[in-house]
Amino acid sequence: MDTQVTAKFKILKPANEVFEAIADPERMSNYWFSSGTGRVEQGKTITWRYDEYNAEVVINVLEVEANKKVMFSWGGRGQETIVKITLKKLDDTSTIIEVNEAGLREDDPEIVNKMIGQKEGWVYMLTCLKGYLENGINNLRASLIH
Q1: Which of 18, 27, 78, 125 is the most exposed place for a label (fewest CB within 10 A)?
Q2: With pLDDT > 90 as the criterion, what percentage of the chain qualifies?
Q3: Is 136 helix (H, G, I), strand (E, B) or coil?
């Protein structure tokens, strides 16, 4: 069984703006996590915090290619997954962003629910990112969960 999930959106902004919204914790806080302990850079370990859920997650940044790719691992022992975010420049004003999360455990009795939940989470994040970059909507995530 293929346990990876993928979500893909077109964002009407250049790839460098989309990349900076992912890599810069200050920009990221406008649509995704509430805060981050540092910029997304290869080899770094960063903590992202969700104030709305009183939760945090540690990511290990595995690979970064400016304006093209961010790859990181996250999750607890035995549940770690690899997230690969790729950016494809369409032209000077638009980018395709694709998020792929792989490594969900096939033998997990809750695998289907987890896959649906992760897919839903990535679509949610991309929706908030699109609203932020294209329309200047800050903290859409917070208004959707209340």
Answers
A1: 78
A2: 82
A3: coil
